[in-house]
Each structure stands twice: as C-alpha cells, then as structure tokens.
Amino acid sequence: MQRQNPAVLALMSVSSIMISAFVLSVDVARSQSNPVEVSPAEVERLQNELRLQEAVQAEANQIFSRTMALFNLLLLLLALLLAAAIAALWILRRSVIHEVTGIVETHLNELGTWKIKSPAGMNRYKL
After folding, report:
1. N or C: which end of the chain has fewer CB atoms below 10 A?
2. Cβ-contact 16, 9 below 8 angstroms
3. Which whole-number Å values give the CA distances from 91 to 16, 40, 59, 84, 98, in the listed order?
4. 36-66, pLDDT tens digit by residue?
5. CB-side exposure of 102: number of CA atoms within 13 Å?
6. Strand ranges inside the chain, DSSP E
C-alpha cells in the first residue's frame, strides 16, 4: 500500500519522536526534583524485609526442587509400571494362544479318531 503524502508521514514521525523526548525529559526532571529522605530505622527495616524475602525465596526454591524430584520419581515409576503391564499382557497373550492351540489340536485329534472309527456315521452329521 502506497502512502499519498510521504511528507505528512515524515512530519508525523518527527513530531512523535519530539513529543516522546519531551515527555521522557519531563518525567526524568520530575523524578530528580523530589528526592525521598529515608530514616536509618526505615533503611534497617527494609534491609531486614529484603533478607526475610530472600530466605523465603530460598526455602520456596528448595521445596520446589524436592517436589520436582518426587514428581520425576513418580513419573519414572509410572513408566516402569506401564512397561511391566505391557510385558505381562504380551506373556498372557502367548499363553492364551498356546492353550487355544492345544485345545484345538485335541479336538481335531478326537475328530480324526471319530472319523476313522465310524465312517458310515459321518453322513448323518453335517459338520
């Protein structure tokens, strides 16, 4: 998209820079003109408060690191439990296949011996 008046755009950008510089200089001048006097007792109280805040932050960091270690341990245990469950299901599947195969072979053997014993009876029963 092309601008209709590039001169107006340049004038607006220069004026916005000048206004920003003026506002910043007024803010800096205002902050320098009002120095705050603090009593030594207030300084001591603020220092104690800062030390207390740092101690609380250190304790919070320690508790957080313990919590993260426990969370990671539980996540590892959950992954191991999942792997054990998958392995158990795989072994159970193989066992079921083995048992079904044995039952089917037994039935087929019985059917084969029954066929050999009574060939005339086979015409009566449709399998």
Report:
1. N
2. no
3. 76, 76, 48, 11, 11
4. 677 888 888 889 999 999 999 999 999 999 9
5. 6
6. none
> Do the Cβ atoms of 122 and 115 come closer than 8 Å?
yes
Q: How many CA atoms lie within 13 A of 124 on its CB side?
A: 5
Side-chain half-sphere CA neighbours of 5 within 13 A: 7
pTM recorded for the entire structure: 0.45
Angle at 63 between CA 59 and CA 64, to 5 degrees: 115
pLDDT tens column, 4-37: 666 656 666 767 776 776 666 665 555 555 566 7
Q: How crowded is residue 113: how many other Cβ atoms within 10 Å of its Cβ? A: 10
**Token pair listed for 54:** 């740092």
Residues in the chain: 127
* Tokens describing residue 51: 């030390």
